Amino acid sequence: MSIVLACLSGFALAVASPWLYRLARGATGWLLALFPAGLFLYFSSFLGTCIAGNAVYTAYPWIPTLGIDLAFFIDGLSLLFALIITGIGALVILYAGEYLHGHPHLGRFYAIILTFMASMLGVVMAGNLITMFIFWELTSISSFLLIGFDHQREQSRAAALQALLVTGAGGLAMLAGLLLIGQANGTFALPHLLSQGGAVRQHPLYLPILLLILLGAFTKSAQVPFHFWLPGAMEAPTPVSAYLHSATMVKAGVYLLVRLGPVLGGTEAWHYLVTTAGAVTMVIGAVLALWQTDLKRILAYSTVSTLGTLVLLIGLDTSLSIKAAMVFLLVHALYKGALFLVAGAVDHAAGSRDITQLGGLARAMPITATAAVLAALSMAGFPPMLGFINKELLYEAKLQAPRASELITTLGILANVALVGVAGIVGVKPFFSKRHTTLQHAHEVAPALWIGPLVLAGWGLFNGLWPDVLVNPLITAAVNAVQPEITSVELKLWHGINPVFGLSVITVIAGVGLFLSHDLWFRENWRAWLLQTTSRISPQRLYELGLVGLNKLARAQTRLLQNGYLRYYLLTIVATTIGLVGYTLFMPGLPTVTTESKLDILVHEGVIAGIIILATIMAVTTRSRLAAIAAMGTVGYGVALLYILFSAPDLAMTQFAIETLTVILFVLVIYRLPRFALLSSTPARIRDALVALLAGGMMSLLVLAAVAGPFQSHLAPYFAAHSLDLAKGRNVVNVILVDFRGFDTLGEITVLSVAALGIFALLKLRKEH
Amino acid sequence: MNIADVQIVSILPQTLLLAAALVVFLADLVWKDRKGIGLLALAGVLATFVATVVMLAGPGVPTFQHMAAADRFALVISLVMSAAAVLAVLVSLDYIVRVDLPAGEYYGLLLLAASGMMFLGAATHLMTLFLSLEILSIALYALAGIRTTDIRAGEAALKYFLLGAFASAFLLYGMALLYGATGTTSLAGIAAAVPSVQTDPMLIAGLALLLIGFAFKVAAVPFHMWTPDVYQGAPSSVTAFMSVGAKAAGFAALVRVLVAVFPTLYAWWVWPVGVLAVLTMTWGNLAALAQGNVKRMLAYSSIAHAGYILVGVAAGEAGVSGVLFYLMAYALMNIGAFAVLIALERAEEDAAGVELERMRGLFHRRPWLAAAMTVFMFSLAGMPPLAGFFGKLYVFSAAVRSGLLVLAIIGVINSVISAYYYLRVVARMALAAPAEEAEPARCPALTIGTGIAAVGTVLLGIYPTWLLNLVQGTLAVLFGG
Question: A583 and B272: CB-CB below 8 Å?
């Protein structure tokens, strides 16, 4: 029960937070930060259980008919994520209180970010695939609301919508995949799925399932070519970028891949797809990061690169690579969260995030600068930071990749060199390069703004020096959750001189060189050229073109199909009917319609039929309305004559009456109608004639089909037999009308009287006008 | 026939509505208070709602002369319909005074249409099927044109009538063919006869024509052309009710006929229904995307929703409960969305519906109204954990279970497209308001209606189980007791 409360109480607090803000005002951030901090401590208590490779699972029936439980599942993997979410969450909320100080909608901000936190906890702790999906989409929605938080700006709103469409679409694709997994296994419950992974891999739809799930994971975790929403999302307030778009939400895809690895992984398709996407993203993200000028966009692209590395490691799918991924996840959350918060503090203090404008801030902002440098060192992989341990591990995992290890390692070195350069650009350059004059008076920021970055960066140092305290147990727990055999992870700062250390040294030297020569190659004209070229072929552009195209298509087809002309509507309906009924009549497996050739037509029957046909042709070709009506009347009379010939005089009488009445009515209104206008062109008339002929042909076929089979009437013999003894009448038709169907007759009379009353009322109305 | 044997209680909700319609028509002759007549109508629909709930909870009642059933399927449809009718009357109370509509005709026709819809949901006989379809259609033709001063409304009503008459003719011809093939007009009788004559072309052609008739009523593409004009031309409250009620009724009849009468021909009808579903979803969404008028956008999107429901129909027996759930969810969220539009609508300039630009700044002026609209938009877009999401989940997972993966995926893609235009409304509401904007209408009944719809949409999302249990296994008793 307490797990459920821990996961869901965030939603309750979110609802309450705007009121809390009204009461507590400036202290709200400090108060609300206590909540995730408390959760952090609570979740820490699960560490012992998880190190042993055990998991906690609680489920409450929610929608039993669909197999959806409100289920929560904590193992080492969930725990690692939960601690990152709550730990960084506390720091970010604290930070945001100061960063958005005085913002008119701060109360709403707290509500949304708490909703996000609760949803994100839900994603990583859900013990049921559908429950996980629900939380997953909730993170997308809260991300949408947070990116668009400054909704007055057009850019914010466009970026918010773009992020939601990309991740929401991926999420829905994932839902289709999850439904299929559930169908293959007969359950959505995570513990059952993990224990019987084979079912999905042997499923005939394995590849579609895999693709759908990967689509969800790749969009959420910003893999190329879906990465473009992440830099766009930098429109969000900086604490949001630090929290959602670097430390937590974008890792949800990574979480999903690790989580479903035992269910979906281990196949060739998995290996190639995941590794390739990861490798490409790793390199492209790192390279693009170097060419940005905005601090946040630099960080965003480097996050893309990191996410690529994580996905790549998961795709390698060795015990070592999973371990490396877990460590990297933690390290990255620490240093990137810190760097984002630093960027926000710099923006706050110096009024700019443009690295070509920033410089020499170390003197004015010593504490922030310390945090920045520590985080940058961790990012660049300098000893004794945790980042160094991590880099060694990354190289080791890549060198031991089962396939193409040379290529992967080379790409890894490339990306890492670029990231070392990036670390320098964001963590060192604004503080230590020569001072620019265009800046407003920079000053150290309030404690709430430096506590977060300093704690996060400090953790990177502390854990690097003493990995046994927290990192080893945590990573052990996470790795044991995913791997079948229980191991104990023991990371050490110093491994001695070996090839991996050699790679680290090369990376650092090349990276530092890149940073120092930054000003040389980072020339405005080169940059402009590069950005222009890439923007022309980027997926971002494709997305925009897609949207524009979709809108155009929507307009065009609406104009075409919804043109407002009744005659086209009718044409469509008739044509569809012909298609559907035609499909029926000619579908295989049905006996073909055969009529016994009763073509013994008598002469006068033939004459009448001929008259009917001629009159029909006249009715559709004549230019005179009166002639058309007369022709229609002829058709009707012809049919009535046929009734007489086939011994149905009562039908014929009815038909005569109706035809006469119709013609009279027509003649009455004909003088009120406008002149016959030729509204359609010849091709249109030919098309109409074709459709009309087809429709007529279809109806004839149906009639032939109807008379082909033997027809047993149950009614006629019944009425004939019982009209005398039940109704005491010899005229069967009379008896039917007044006795067997007496109520019907009464109804008809009533209807006619009401109709007459209505017409009377209408006539009266006209007189009054 | 003994009058005492007539199980009038089994058609109690429908009868109550008919009675209420008559009372309203008569009261209108002597009583000129439009609000008062509205309250009479409200009492009628509330009584119907209560009767339906009581019957659902009760032990079950026999069919009405084998013409109409009071089985769980029919009662759930009645529940949807009476809930929709209650909401529609609530949002109309103030609105019809504001836009100057004749109260007697308005409420009377509304109640008549609702009773026709309920009969359609209960019909177990071709005659009841056709008659109830005509009752609801004719009432709706008149309602669509009730704004006699608006030439667009007149044109829309005329088009609706002509096309509707056309579709009815197809339907009737199909029924005649079915009778010819099986020798009976009761659905149970036809169902019993189908296996022995199922290769008879006459039977299948009859089924095809029936399908076309219903496709017209539920506004499936390409039989949807009347919808945008009619939905835009009719008063917003009528549009809200129509888009929900007529759709629910049409789907009820379609499901009963296809799933209960023709299960052995599933392999035949799954194709046309599937194709209709794809066309309907895709076309409806694309067209809604192009609209700058919110009312028209909702009209087109209602076509798209018919497409999602058709996915459930195509899933066959597995989809029945999903269809019912979806209909309930759709009733709440769609009428809710229209209720917000009604609050914004002003008599003169919004005759053609509220433009998207008019949504600007709603968050600042009326935060709760805007929050309700956000709930409806997110739910219509199928975002969890709201009612619309579970509707889609239910329907799509039924499709997956029936092996119609492609349909489910196309449905998912369409949901993405729809998110774009629904969220556009949300984004617009967050913008700053132009200064000269007039205050949206405040009226207790409208507020209550909007509130019920919003709370219902959320609750149905957080706790859908009660309704799911209700709709579960309705098929087993489709002709029952």
Answer: yes
What residues have CB less than 8 Å from A33, skipping those under 6 apart? A90, A91, A93, A94, A97
Q: Which residues pair with B125 in a beta bridge?
A: B186
**Cβ-based contacts of A587 with chain B (< 8 Å):** 204, 268
Find, in chain B, the residue whose alpha carbon is nearest to that of A592: B201
* Helical packing angle, A386-399 and A447-465, nearest 10°: 50
Q: Residue B1 pLDDT more than 60?
A: no
Phi, psi of A59 (to 5 degrees): -140, 135
Each residue's pLDDT tens digit, B293-323: 899 899 889 999 999 999 999 998 888 989 9
Give A717→chain B minimum CA distance, Å: 14
Of the candidates A114, A108, A99, the one whose C-alpha atom is nearest the C-alpha of residue A149 is: A108
Rounded Cα distance, A225 and A539, in Å:
6
Is A732 part of the contact surface with chain B (CB cutoff 8 Å)?
A: no
Return averaged pLDDT per consecutive 10 residues of chain A, 769 residues in all: 85 89 85 93 89 86 83 92 94 91 86 94 93 92 85 78 87 88 87 81 88 94 90 89 90 93 88 93 90 89 94 90 91 93 89 83 87 92 86 87 86 91 89 69 82 90 86 88 78 78 88 82 73 76 85 81 80 87 68 56 85 90 83 91 84 85 79 71 86 88 74 74 82 81 87 86 71
Residue B200: which of A183, A208, A709 has the nearest Cβ?
A: A709
Closest CA to B164 of B107, B225, B108, B86: B225
Nearest by CB: A705 against B205, B207, B469 = B205
Does the beta-carbon distance from B201 to A593 stay under 8 Å? yes
pLDDT digits (tens, 9 = 90+) for B109-149: 999 999 999 999 999 999 999 999 999 999 999 999 898 88
Kindly report the nearest CA distance between residue B97 and chain A, in angstroms: 24
- Domain borders along chain B are 3-477
Q: Which of A225, A477, A200 is nearest to A326 (CA)?
A: A477
Cα–Cα distance list, A353 to A17, A338, A387, A641, B20 (Å): 30, 15, 25, 92, 68
Residues of B whose CB is below 8 A from A209: none
- Cα A627 to its chain centre, rounded Å, is 61
Q: Cα distance from A79 to chain B (closest Cα, Å)?
A: 25
Residue A33, pLDDT score: 92
In angstroms, rounded to a whole number, what is the distance separating the alpha carbons of residues B239 and A428? Answer: 62
Chosen for mutation from A112, A130, A200, A584 (greatest number of chain B CBs closer than 10 Å) is: A584
ipTM: 0.85
Per-residue b or e along A435-453, where b marks 16 or more CB atoms closer than 10 Å to that residue's CB: ebeebeebebbbebbbbbb
pLDDT value, residue A258: 93
Report the C-alpha gap between A696 and A617 in whole angstroms.
Answer: 13
Domain ranges of chain A: 266-522, 713-769
Find out whether B453 and B376 touch, Cβ atoms under 8 Å.
Answer: yes
What's the alpha-carbon Rg for chain A, to the nearest Å? 38
Check CB contact under 8 Å for A66 and B202. Answer: no
Mutate: best of A551, A569, A586, A744, partner B, most B CBs <10 A: A569
pLDDT above 50 (res B381): yes
In a 13 Å sphere around the CA of A429, the CA atoms on its Cβ side amount to 25
B234 three-class SS: coil
Torsion from C-alpha of A257, A263, A267, A273, nearest 10 degrees: -20
Q: Using the beta-carbon criterion (under 8 Å), do A65 and B216 form an inter-chain contact? A: no
Substitution target from B6, B161, B172, B202 for chain A, most A beta carbons within 10 A: B202
Q: Does B166 reach chain A within 8 Å, measured CB to CB? A: yes
